[in-house]
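Consider the tokenized backbone below.
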């Protein structure tokens, strides 16, 4: 593939996290067990918290069990974790737990070595950076503010998840993000390791590049007919002239 295929003149870059900016293994091996060990306490001790209550109600709705108690809800959350299901209430409750863990210093996020220099360079060049992840906005905020290189949240113009944008493999979600950002679709570049997400972004009129990192779950599957890069520094992004 020619490096010309990896040159883009846009106004914003939208980032997936798992497998793209950061190792899926860190999320699965560190963050998932951390949340699993704390679901029970969260559900029993903070059931009156509005955000927790909304998530619990959503679990009951999705399982068709309006009377599910905290034990049943926790069992469902753990089953969804085992399936790696991208259920919004699961991501909401994980986000609450992770945000507190990052704030306490129990957790420090992971970024691939090529990512942070690229994000800083793109931000300095006047490009807007957004995040679109299945992880909740609360989890994204904690992730970017608690990194080995300090607080990266000031680099980010906006955060999107499956609750405020919609499912990641539906084109309408990307149209919603473009509308929220006030940008034409062809002024947005999406980076992700998942071909279904790349397909949806392209269907919405976005530019899209598949990130293929050895050892990641989607590496062998590839990114379909999308342009691909192994690292962020293989991608050249410049601010599109008005």
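A designed sequence for it:
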């Amino acid at each position: 593939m020619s490096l010309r295929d990896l040159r883009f003149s846009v106004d914003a870059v939208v980032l997936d996290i798992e497998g793209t900016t950061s190792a899926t293994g860190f999320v699965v091996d560190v963050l998932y067990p951390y949340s699993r060990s704390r679901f029970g306490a969260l559900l029993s001790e903070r059931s009156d918290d509005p955000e927790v209550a909304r998530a619990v109600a959503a679990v009951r709705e999705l399982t068709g069990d309006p009377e599910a108690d905290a034990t049943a809800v926790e069992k469902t959350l753990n089953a969804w974790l085992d399936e790696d299901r991208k259920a919004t209430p699961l991501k909401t409750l994980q986000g609450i737990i992770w945000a507190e863990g990052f704030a306490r210093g129990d957790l420090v996020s992971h970024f691939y070595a090529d990512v942070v220099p690229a994000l800083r360079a793109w931000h300095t060049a006047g490009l807007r950076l957004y995040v679109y992840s299945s992880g909740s906005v609360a989890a994204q905020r904690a992730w970017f503010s608690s990194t080995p290189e300090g607080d990266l949240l000031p680099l980010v113009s906006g955060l999107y998840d499956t609750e405020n944008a919609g499912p990641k493999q539906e084109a309408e979600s990307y149209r919603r993000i473009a509308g929220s950002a006030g940008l034409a679709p062809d002024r947005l570049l999406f980076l992700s390791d998942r071909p279904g997400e790349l397909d949806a972004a392209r269907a919405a009129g976005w530019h899209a590049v598949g990130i293929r990192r050895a050892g990641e779950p989607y590496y062998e599957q590839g990114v379909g007919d999308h342009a691909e890069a192994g690292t962020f520094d293989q991608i050249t992004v410049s601010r599109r002239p008005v």
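The chain has two domains: 3-22+109-239, 28-104.
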